[in-house]
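Weekly sync, protein design subgroup
Attendees: M.S., D.O., the rotation student, P.L. (late)

Item 1: inverse folding check
M.S. brought a backbone from last month's batch and wanted to see whether the design step gives back something sensible before we order anything. D.O. pointed out we never logged the input encoding, so this time it goes straight into the notes. Structure tokens as presented (364 positions):
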């Protein structure tokens, strides 16, 4: 499944530095993985997955194909973006096309880098961006509600559902709350998504700190974490400057650089993992001599739904899945011994796929 995360923030908060680090990392992966920059402000990045390398070694796979995630660098938003200030409306539309939003907040002090609001206050930065998105949502809903009301009064059941959800969203927004804080039933989820609200998208707050605070954060990033908890959002601490410096290093040089800073892995890995967690996603694998491949599916997906990610025909004609847990595959050094040990199972349509499952599908 194709995943898109918008990177948004005020000008000069480190948003583009972070995006450039992501795309340079992807370029460095080109020796092993395909990489493309779809547009100048869009980067397609491999999801870090050490388990995939291990599976490929065991199976002797000729090619490794990781799952992908696309990051969209939305031009710096400013106060008044919802009314077209700066390049507001154009880039608000870019956000609408994404699955989640990463809000970058400046949590470092540097007199050489000016702040558009002439102060360093990451929570206030987040509030400005969130307010602009809420105002854009309000305007969108208020334009649509009159037409939907007419249809609803005429007995259109779909319009009645849509009107109920529009009113729910308006209630949240007028109370100064993002739409994602509304309680939406499972039956309404599809219709809710169809409203295409900017503030209904899952949110990740990225606290961009100076190099010295990359491991544990600082007082400013702690305030961002508190705000995230209040706003029903996730948060992660990262130093965009460090990420841009290590993006062009090879694996061994990266490891040495990070160890010197007391870090176990690049912050970008944490960022991507948090994005997965935010979207309720997990990974399963297909492994063979030709390729080892990671596939992205929602947590709770059934075996036929997982098969459908490969090809819709696999889901339609699903017969059964043969699956073995990653730990068993590695411990027994492959599928053949896993089968002999009774660890490879045949699962039917009701099977709920687990993170790390290694799977083969039989279909009609």
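Designed sequence read out in the meeting:
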């Amino acid at each position: 499944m194709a995943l898109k995360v918008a990177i948004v923030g005020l000008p000069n908060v480190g948003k583009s530095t972070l995006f450039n680090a992501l795309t340079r990392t992807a370029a460095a992966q080109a020796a092993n993985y395909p990489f493309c920059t779809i547009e100048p402000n869009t980067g397609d990045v491999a999801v870090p997955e050490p388990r995939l390398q291990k599976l490929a070694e065991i199976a002797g796979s000729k090619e490794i194909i990781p799952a992908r995630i696309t990051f969209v660098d939305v031009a710096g938003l400013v106060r008044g973006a919802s009314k077209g200030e700066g390049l507001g409306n154009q880039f608000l539309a870019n956000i609408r096309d994404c699955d989640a939003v990463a809000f970058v907040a400046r949590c470092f002090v540097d007199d050489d880098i000016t702040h558009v609001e002439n102060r360093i206050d990451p929570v206030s930065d987040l509030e400005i961006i969130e307010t602009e998105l809420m105002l854009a949502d309000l305007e969108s809903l208020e334009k649509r509600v009159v037409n939907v009301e007419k249809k609803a009064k005429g007995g259109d059941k779909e319009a009645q559902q849509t009107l109920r959800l529009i009113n729910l969203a308006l209630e949240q927004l007028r109370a100064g709350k993002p739409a994602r804080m509304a309680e939406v039933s499972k039956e309404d989820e599809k219709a809710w998504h169809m409203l295409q609200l900017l503030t209904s998208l899952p949110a990740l707050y990225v606290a961009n700190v100076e190099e010295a605070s990359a491991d544990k954060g600082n007082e400013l990033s702690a305030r961002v974490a508190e705000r995230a908890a209040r706003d029903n959002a996730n948060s992660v601490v990262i130093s965009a400057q460090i990420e841009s410096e290590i993006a062009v290093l090879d694996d061994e040089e990266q490891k040495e650089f990070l160890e010197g800073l007391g870090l176990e892995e690049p912050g970008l890995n944490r960022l991507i993992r948090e994005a997965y967690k935010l979207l309720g996603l997990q990974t399963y694998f297909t492994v063979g001599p030709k390729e080892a491949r990671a596939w992205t599916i929602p947590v709770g997906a059934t075996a036929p739904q997982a098969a459908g990610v490969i090809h819709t025909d696999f889901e339609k004609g699903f017969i059964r899945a043969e699956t073995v847990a990653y730990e068993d595959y590695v411990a027994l050094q492959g599928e053949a011994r896993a089968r002999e040990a009774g660890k490879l199972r045949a699962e039917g349509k009701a099977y709920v796929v687990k993170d790390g499952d290694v799977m083969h599908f039989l279909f009609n």
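Discussion: The longest strand covers residues 100-107. The chain has 14 helices and twelve strands.
Action: P.L. to compare against the previous round before Friday.
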